[in-house]
């Protein structure tokens, strides 16, 4: 039987004034008895919305989280402070999104860790198998997620289609976004948008199968809370993507599956400089496959999330894609999780 877990928090970081998306999130969270936390930065203007707990930089530091005192400003990684605040509040899950994603009513449906759908399995005998999951939700449209290796983007259905019926435990779940979904700058400059994804059953990824997931519409359940961590000492456009590769590697060490779900938000994208985005994405274009190959080769212990997380980031630092300063921030994150009782969760093997 699937168990719905309704004690949750919605987390956003924003440098915008209150807008219709944020007001919609606040209204929905209040209506469903959920926490809604907005983490600001130095550029965030004066901010107040009913049903929203807003934290400016000063109030973030006042939380006494070790991480909050060390995290650089002007950084998307300050979202980590929102995760810590939610965990301190005792929630069972954290759902993150951005300030330009309008929630549909389905966004507020009860969430469950047990998922029924179909699964993509690997035929690569243990080596990395890349899977463009967007392909399964858009059979008639060429599209791929930000972070997918650009040199593989036109290889449709590289992995076998998810035809095997599956039911299992999925502590990280990526919901899609209609309208302006999360694609890279190259796609935005060359292909038409908006896009509306098809509706289908959830897709689970098997062992050795990888697809990037983002921070637009993603749910982490308690068992995966340590994997929420966003690195600060890397490209802004890669922080959530490289987090996703680390998270998938650690999930696989536990025998757990990442799942992709129907779009429950639509994005009216904030203004972006696409050439600037392109520049920020170059480290990913050049390194995404190398990063995943490196992570896949690591020997990780089952259910040792904290130890495995540390090993993964040490590997990224050794590769030179994440700065060595990340060690200090990661240690602070883990110390805060430990103080909150969220780093030594008990798991059944």
Descriptive overview:
- The protein is 30% helix and 20% strand.
- By secondary structure, it is α/β, with parallel strands linked by helices.
- Strands 2, 3, 4, 5, 6, 8, 10, 11, 12, 14 and 15 form an eleven-stranded mixed β-sheet that branches.
- Strand 2, helix 1 (20-31) and strand 3 form a beta-alpha-beta unit.
- It starts with a strand and ends in a 10-residue tail after the last helix.
- 48% of the residues are buried.
Reading the helices and strands in chain order gives EEHEEHHHEEEEEEEHEEEHEHHH
* CA gyration radius, whole angstroms: 19 Å
- Assess the beta-strand content as a share of residues: 15-25%
Estimate the helix proportion, in percent. Answer: 25-40%
* Number of beta strands: 15
End-to-end separation: 20 Å
Shape: globular
Describe what is shown at a glance.
The protein is of the alpha/beta class and 349 residues long.
Give the topology.
Layout: E1 4-5, E2 8-13, H1 20-31, E3 35-39, E4 53-55, H2 57-61, H3 66-70, H4 79-88, E5 93-97, E6 101-103, E7 111-112, E8 114-120, E9 129-130, E10 164-169, E11 172-179, H5 185-190, E12 203-205, E13 209-210, E14 217-221, H6 239-254, E15 258-267, H7 274-296, H8 305-319, H9 326-339
Parallel strand pairs: 2-3, 2-5, 3-4, 8-12, 9-13, 11-15
Antiparallel strand pairs: 1-7, 5-14, 6-15, 8-10, 11-14, 12-15
Helix pairs in contact: 6-7, 6-8, 8-9
Name a few traits of the molecule.
single chain, 349 residues, alpha/beta, 11-stranded mixed beta sheet, 9 helices, 15 strands
